[in-house]
Specification:
By secondary structure, the chain is α+β, with helices and mostly antiparallel strands. The chain has 4 helices and 8 strands. The chain is globular. It binds zinc ion (ZN).
């Protein structure tokens, strides 16, 4: 694997480092790679995103979504899909119960990738918007995993998108 350059505030993690519910989220996110739909891009990259919501009463919910191409230049990244899922299915005041986001990818030929899939610039903006609504601000934890879940990076949206903008 190519050497990963970590930013300050990031740590390497593997599946074994995750808490039980985070592992379940990682498993479901990885299993959801089969939902990736990318008929237009020749490189066909499978990406899946998961969000874990843990409530104070002990209940929890896991949301997943995959990347979805609807035209040669029109697509929705997995991160945008899962943020829509979360926004549509839990109340605004519950967003503070989001524990983490997990990203997993696979290359176009179905093989494991060498490098974890860090979010594109647009998705960093989407995630920042969610983090603000979820009261996490820049500290929202994001796990970015290679296909095998063995090699990952724990980061935050504040590291991926420093100086997040304030909406008036
Ligand atoms: Zn994206």
């Amino acid at each position: 694997m190519a050497q990963l350059e970590l930013c300050p505030g990031e740590t390497m993690v593997s599946y074994a480092d995750l808490a039980p519910r985070e592992r379940e989220t990682a498993d479901l996110t990885k299993a959801n790679l089969v939902k990736s739909y990318h008929p237009f891009s020749k490189s066909g990259h499978f990406v899946s995103a998961g969000v874990l919501v843990e409530r104070p009463d002990g209940t929890y919910q896991i949301f997943v979504a995959a990347n979805n191409e609807v035209g040669p230049t029109l697509f929705s990244c997995a991160e945008q899909g899962v943020i829509r899922e979360v926004s549509n299915h839990i109340q605004e005041e519950e967003l503070g119960n989001i524990s983490c986001m997990i990203l997993v990818d696979q290359d176009g030929s179905g093989r494991a990738t060498n490098k974890p899939p860090f979010p594109c610039p647009t998705c960093r903006g989407w995630i920042a918007g969610l983090a603000k609504r979820a009261s996490w601000g820049e500290h929202l934890p994001i796990y970015v995993f290679r296909t095998d879940l063995e090699v990952g990076v724990k980061t935050t949206i504040g590291v991926l998108l420093p100086h997040m903008m304030d909406f008036p």
